[in-house]
């Protein structure tokens, strides 16, 4: 028959196991929302759209100082212009195509190869914060989705390359931002008007998404902590009853 000390040890082990499980769930729930992400509500195949890159700083001690987005090469984009970000400078780099492509807008000989953002001194994205970088790009290719590998550089020299693709249904550690492109007809039904305020609307929508993700993450932390406490209390009570305490 188990003694009181052995029951207590068992209780502690079970409590520790519950705590570890709760932490694992929380990391899985909040990790995905912290990755570099791209949205484009008005991004349609064959058209122009505003791409919003959301870049959070995941480091606890360093700020994000540089962001470099590699544009698609197999399905090139002819032109791109960036929305100014206070405290940051942007550089759009073009390259010549090995073989020109004929599009609805004419013969395409060059494409946008990369877009780099660099923070001025003291203007980086601090720990616990994020920044949005908006790009008006097009014409967008006739493809279901586009991947934008992104290199994130921190003030301590650390670099994180968001360039991995999903395999077997599991999300990689550093997934590349992927944008789904809507067919023109679908886009017209969902959003019949696209105005000059599209960048502001995209920024507002993306900020709302980030805020919602943060609220969900905090709620998950609170609920998990309560669950662990209640489980430990129940186990300790059961242990006391079994020992006659």
TrEMBL record:
Pfam families: DUF1775. Keywords: Membrane, Signal, Transmembrane, Transmembrane helix. Residues 1-34 form the signal peptide. The keyword Signal applies. InterPro entries: TAT_signal, YcnI-copper_dom, YcnI-like_sf. The keyword Transmembrane helix applies. The chain crosses the membrane at residues 214-236. Residues 35-181 form the YncI copper-binding domain. This is YncI copper-binding domain-containing protein. It comes from Amnibacterium soli.
